[in-house]
Design a protein that fits this description.
The protein has ten helices and eight strands. It has 252 residues and is α+β, with helices and mostly antiparallel strands. Among the domains are: 4-40; 171-247, Homing endonucleases (Endonuclease I-creI). The strands form two sheets. Strands 1-2-4-3 form a four-stranded antiparallel sheet. It has a four-stranded antiparallel sheet with strand order 5-6-8-7. α1 packs antiparallel against α2, α7 (152-160) crosses α8 (162-173) and α8 crosses α9.
């Protein structure tokens, strides 16, 4: 049996976005007990989130916006008026995981950031009442099923830090690969390799945001349809790849 103050402390930690495992380790209370207390609670009425104010670091925000549009989501906490920001990052790219965590910390200093391990990836997660205000693209359903447009203040940040947005988009839903082909030279078939960037996203709006930003940066791109789906943006021209290498680079 646990007294009322112990229960309140445990539930307050959960309301901050902590996992049941971490609260259990800190308090010594079993996860089953904490889960049972949560099940007995009535959901809180959902209040309008407060104005978060501007991001603390606009450069980091532009990068985080790209990650969110590519592989991120915002979901309400079931027992509080806060929200989780979650960014999926593959285990293969530990540098990406670290940069994602750093970006969240720079955008909202003082917030907790933790990584939930999944099969083949981690969900970099942070809890705050402010996430819907910082990412007004949040809404019900999947991003490609609703309109995605930047708010004027977001566009101002992207205009100031366009490469950071492109880097976030490529690091989430893009890649840098090496293509190859063969040619006959003097009767001998030779192999040639060349680097190429791809960005793949089902949302027409998010792809357009990517290509509009690339246009402003002088990066040449083309649509690349695969299996009948026009979801791929390709950057293959040598000068444009060099620009991308200088400002984006491969995931690591």
């Amino acid at each position: 049996m646990y007294d009322v103050s112990t229960r309140k402390r445990a539930l307050a930690l959960v309301a901050q976005g902590r996992s049941l495992n971490s609260v259990s380790r800190e308090t010594g209370i079993s996860r089953a007990a904490i889960r049972a207390w949560l099940d007995r609670l009535e959901p809180l009425p959902r209040l309008a989130p407060p104005d978060p104010g501007p991001p603390a670091c606009e450069r980091a925000y532009a990068y985080l916006l790209g990650l969110y549009l590519g592989d991120g989501c915002i979901s309400p906490h079931p027992r509080s008026n806060g929200f989780y920001l979650r960014i999926a990052c593959a285990d293969a790219w530990p540098g990406l995981i670290q940069r994602c965590r750093e970006a969240i910390t720079l955008v909202r200093p003082g917030l907790g950031v933790y990584a939930l391990q999944k099969k083949g990836y981690v969900m970099v997660t942070s809890y705050s009442r402010h996430w819907p205000g910082l990412f007004p693209q949040h809404g019900p359903g999947k991003k490609h099923e609703r309109s995605i447009a930047l708010a004027p203040w977001q566009q101002t940040i992207v205009d100031a830090h366009p490469w950071e947005l492109v880097r976030g988009l490529i690091h989430s839903d893009g890649c840098r690969i090496t293509n190859w082909t063969t040619r006959l030279v003097g009767g001998e078939r030779k192999r040639y390799e060349y680097p190429r960037y791809f960005f793949t996203n089902v949302s027409d709006d998010i792809r357009r945001l990517c290509t509009d930003t690339l246009d402003g940066l002088g990066v040449e791109w083309t649509h690349c349809t695969r299996h009948g789906n026009p979801y791929n943006i390709s950057v293959a021209r040598k000068a444009s790849v060099a620009l991308m290498d200088a400002h984006v680079g491969p995931k690591y």
